[in-house]
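User: I've been trying to design a sequence by hand for this structure and keep getting stuck. Would you show me what you'd pick, starting by listing the structure so we're on the same page?

Assistant: Good idea, let's start from the same input. This is the structure you sent:
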């Protein structure tokens, strides 16, 4: 059983939903990433999404774009990110880590080599924003052979055919993009999300996490009432940006802890 499946099974048995925070590897500087990953776990993270910086992050809004630019300025590469995961694994053998990024760095690295190195580092899932399921069957198969979950996006505009393709190629969980547009944009329509999630879960046959537009405990709790996981990224990056030097880990733990408590309290009400 994968760490991702084990995490969802454990949470389900306790009547809880997964909290999946996102940070950019190498931001605000390379030495901060390990401390921030540990801070996320301390704040209640069940799965960590770790961004791989890329020069043309077309699905990301300005907040995550700035994070990628800062990381790239330090020369952070896919190889560097895998090394960070390996270092995290020396101290945490349980928390699943999902790499989130774009196809170009993986293709430049080499798909087979990437899957080998990711598995050795302790990566549990990979979400490639610009890899639609119908175009990466081979990539998904290679990941699965290495016991890594290929994770895919669904959006409000996704078709029934896309649901079927994602159900066949994907594993681990589905990332449902709750807004049209880029990360950090728009206003979250909680009623629309609540209407769509049950049908998506039934059709794809795996847990559904919801991201884009979640910024506080109240919205996270409402999403957790209908979804299997809450994904939050831009708000965490903003907290890192606003933190004085050396204080980001503590502030991230506090921010995430408040969201975790809101989700758990909402489940009890």
């Amino acid at each position: 059983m994968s760490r991702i499946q084990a995490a969802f099974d454990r949470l389900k048995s306790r009547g809880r939903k997964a909290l999946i925070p996102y940070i950019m590897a190498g931001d605000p500087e390379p030495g901060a990433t390990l401390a921030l990953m540990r801070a996320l776990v301390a704040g209640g993270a069940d799965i960590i999404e770790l961004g791989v910086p890329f020069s043309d992050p077309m699905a990301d809004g300005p907040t995550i774009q700035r994070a990628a630019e800062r990381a790239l300025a330090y020369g952070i590469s896919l190889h560097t990110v895998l090394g960070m995961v390996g270092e995290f694994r020396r101290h945490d053998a349980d928390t699943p880590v999902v790499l989130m990024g774009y196809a170009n760095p993986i293709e430049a690295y080499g798909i087979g080599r990437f899957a080998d190195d990711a598995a050795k580092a302790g990566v549990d899932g990979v979400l490639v924003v610009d890899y639609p399921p119908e175009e990466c069957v081979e990539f998904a198969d290679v990941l699965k052979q290495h016991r890594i979950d290929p994770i895919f996006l669904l959006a409000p505009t996704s078709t029934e055919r896309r649901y079927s393709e994602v159900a066949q190629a994907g594993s681990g969980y589905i990332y449902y993009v709750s807004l049209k547009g880029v990360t950090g944009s728009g206003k979250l329509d909680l009623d629309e999300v609540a209407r769509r999630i049950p049908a998506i879960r039934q059709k794809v046959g795996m847990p559904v996490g919801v991201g884009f537009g979640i910024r506080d405990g109240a919205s996270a709790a409402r999403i957790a009432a209908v979804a299997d996981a809450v994904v939050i990224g831009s708000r965490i990056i903003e907290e890192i940006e606003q933190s004085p030097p050396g204080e980001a880990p503590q502030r991230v733990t506090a921010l995430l802890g408040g969201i975790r408590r809101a989700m758990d309290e909402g489940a009890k009400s």
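That's my pick for every position. To get oriented when you compare it with your attempt: The CA atoms of residues 156 and 178 lie 7 Å apart. Residues 248-268 form the longest helix (21 residues).
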